[in-house]
Batch of 2 targets.
Target 1
Amino acid sequence: MTDNFDYDVLVIGGGPGGYVAAIRAAQLGLKTACVESRETLGGTCLNVGCIPSKAMLHASELYHEAHSGALEKFGINLSGTKLDLKQMLAEKTKAVDELTGGIAFLFKKNKIDWLKGLGSFESANSVKVGDKTYTAKNIIIATGSSVTPLPGVEIDNSKHVVVDSTGALELPKVPNHMVVIGGGVIGLELGSVWMRLGAKVTVVEYLDQILPGMDGDIRKDSARIFKKQGFDIKTGTKVTGVTVKGKKASVTIEPAKGGDAETIEADAVLVAIGRRPNIDGLALEKSGVETNDRGQIEVGHDFQTAVKGVYAIGDVTPGPMLAHKAMDEGVAVAEFVAGQQGIVNHDLIPGVVYTHPEIASIGKTEEQVKESGVEYKVGKFPFLANSRAKTNRDTEGYVKIIADAKTDRVLGAHIISSLAGTLVAQITQAMEFGATSEDIAYTCHAHPTHSEAIKEAAIAVLGKPIHT
Ligand code: FAD
Ligand code: NAI
């Protein structure tokens, strides 16, 4: 396909969106390059996001189970368990190195050129990297996102006091008190890590509830669970300033709707109020591509921008900022570029919060269904009545299924459970096939497994659960 271009496809950004697009394009026989400015491939997700955060969540959970005495009821006494934070951080780094190295291997295997450096447009068909300019018939923007700053609050990860998510994955010592600004996914996941390792954690959330965008029941019940675990959650509260003196920070807060200010002393402050698209330095204007008022690049169903031959995927485009969304878009955009039909069902992108218990969601929330005016039924089943969860002493949470009252088609499902992230895949697939709650209810589920709670919740939509 190359005509007179250096490449058929040039991808800017080597995160889950960009590296997957590059691999798929190469698999389809297109001459492909990927520009990435980091030292390693894998983007936010592999370097400073999904992977290191999950490594720390897993390790901190193991430590907490061993240290808190939670295992004694199973006859396992681990008194005297000690934390070696340096080793925990080293093991996390090892996992990151293995996985980012794996992408470099896949690039070599698929003969993809990794152009190391910052890419900026010269025109809609050319990108400058360092002092060289490369031309390409198709350019895919997959530059991702970075932390939204909070005006008046200066983040300095190197000092380990006021940090963003990247800094919170590298604290050299467990803080006595961590204040998390933002009760969203990052705040709750990384807050969980440091709370399990011994910190007192206060979450300051501007809205009336944590986890915006999730189902109302889930937001309310997860807040109750997190408070029971020891989180101090201050909703309807805003941070008006943070001052740092040496290794300590004073965080000034006040009610979001106005009222008396209060100061909280902390040894670590995590700013986690969202992420914004990476467009700085891209010289987008030279390509002719424009952004919307949120700085995102809008695309059509084929991920093409308003400029022919320039595409965009992942966090830099509208929609949930999730690695699996970016990866699926990476496959689809490469298939479109190769003249095939790429497919991503943006109505069915699962979301998982990897706390303990996990929180998972697919499809519509009850609030969205209500607003759409569709008549609906809800079936809920608590893990307290699931035999495997009961046996494992792991009964926190439930499965909630929302179905159309007339057609019985499943519209959404929301799960709180230690295994929610894995369980949600089953409902996602069922929904892709247009399943009704009856289809799920009459599917045989292995016993004893947590998945039986999904079957029972589906039975509950029909009004006749067996075990409650
Ligand atoms: P990115 O991963 O951000 O990759 C973009 C890449 O482009 C970067 O490496 C950047 O260096 C590079 N780049 C940018 N501009 C240029 C340029 N001009 N030239 C060259 N290179 C450039 N999502 C999940 O689904 N599950 C999770 O568990 C999860 N956990 C997370 C935990 C944390 C702490 C964070 C911060 C995020 C997490 N996410 C998670 C979100 C996930 O990381 C992102 O949605 C995902 O990485 C987006 O992929 P992307 O390819 O669009 O962008
Ligand atoms: P978020 O959007 O999930 O949460 C930010 C929270 O901060 C919101 O609750 C918001 O109301 C609150 N907030 C905003 N301004 C505030 C202020 N001034 N004071 C107090 N609270 C304020 O964003 P977060 O947690 O930073 O994560 C960014 C993105 O990364 C998310 O979109 C998420 O999709 C992705 N991510 C995904 C993970 C996963 O899939 N498990 C894990 C971590 C991140």
Target 2
Amino acid sequence: MSKYSFLKLFSLTALVIVLLIACTDVVTEKIVDNTITQNSYHEKHRPQFHFTPEANWMNDPNGMFYYEGKYHLFYQYFPDSTVWGPMHWGHAESNDMVHWKHLPIGLFPDSIGCIFSGGAVVDNNNTSKLGTETNPPIVATFTHHNFDGEKAKTNDFQKQSIAYSLDGGSKWIKYKHNPVIPNTDKIKDFRDPKVVWHEETKKWILVLAAYDRVKFYASTNLIDWKFISDFGIKGDKRLWECPDLFPMKVEGSKEEKWVLIVSIQKEAPNEGTATSYFVGEFNGTEFKSEIESQKWLDWGTDNYAFVTWNNVPKKDGRILGMGWMSNWQYAQIVPTEKWRSAMTLPRELKLIKSESNYALHSLPVKEFKSLRGKLTSLGALEISDEKILEGDFSAAQSELDLTIDLKNTRANSFGLKLQNDLGENLVVKFNKSEGKMYIDRTNSRKNKFSEEFFKNIHSAPIDFENEKLNIRLIIDAASIEIFIDNGALSFTSIFFPTKDFTTMSLFANDGVAKIMEAKIYALDGIWN
Ligand code: FRU
């Protein structure tokens, strides 16, 4: 169910009345209690090392930039409820993208509308003249969404606006002549502007999602934007959201490509919503893709709206990003009580070329390793049937690193099982003859809160032709992130067992699975 139809369900309730009032013309800056309170962060299903809001609803990561030693994260936030509502930009900052400090809300709804997704750039040369040479402004681009217009079906209720900060991202001033990109063509889905600097033409390029395609705009000052081109797939009528565009060096060479990320609201590989990408060329006006259809940044159901950090120092040079670890099919009814949703781990992207094929690989950022605690080294293992793994770790907060000897593995299928004493489980399975991996969460909770969540076993293609297969699995209370062969494939999935999973086992069917090395790390939490 999309969030829009979900919201309709609530239309007779007092909640919606509050929502509508909150986003009409009469609202100026809304006053909410911005005090950051102490929280135990040990509620049921609370991730211990993934970013979550202290309370209430969160979706997409927004406006991420690095400035003066701090990584900033803004996010779609509704401070009044655990379901989606008039969007604000919540705010947090970090020294390492791993440990986060919650900060007061960055952007509030106003007379034009609520604040939907977008990006932020550090305007180092003060091209916007909104700051000074010595104190460059940080400029956020976002969509103003107006509920009155949506209700009246005006079709131009989404417009692009900007806000700027002169104090490193704490206080934001909305530009007084917003919107900067009005919706003159009246496109119903017209949102999520993200900006990148294009060095060759010395222009800012803004990419936004316009229903079944993206549109590009150019500007010299982040304020006056000119439409330059659009890009889509012929015949594709799916809804595109949260695009991102950036140049990237091909790993191990000087070759540069442009990557266009788009999140897709429907018909992802495992249904529902997912993040995809194209690799191609961008000449300052047009994007041309090497590939006809997009590839998937993550094959799991729960990595949406993945976007990257702006202004990462050149000498660092990494492409860093994060996604929302949920899916619109069920995000609003997952059984967490105080808050809803987490972000994925921060990830580094690499562009890998093999023959003429370009692919994005992703792995948790290296800073994540600082959370590793005690190591249980199980060495080489031969698995036939099932083996419970024991050591200095708890199954619900751990990282496993397995290297499978594929050449000498006779078992056709093998994998990992997490379970609790209620008989609930999550199964990760690799099947050689089918050339696939599977995540089965259909039995991960007795009380099935959503049909869609439990309906299918999810899968991804795996190449079993190599001599070895490396599988890295990171488990955090209610999520698993799987990275195959150094990030060549990633798979993110959430689950909500009635009680935490306490047992971790390896299994093999129809023969022996040979594991060359098995390591398990206990992982520290980030919330004290
Ligand atoms: C993606 C999205 C965006 C929109 C935001 C609203 O998850 O639908 O397109 O800006 O969520 O919260």
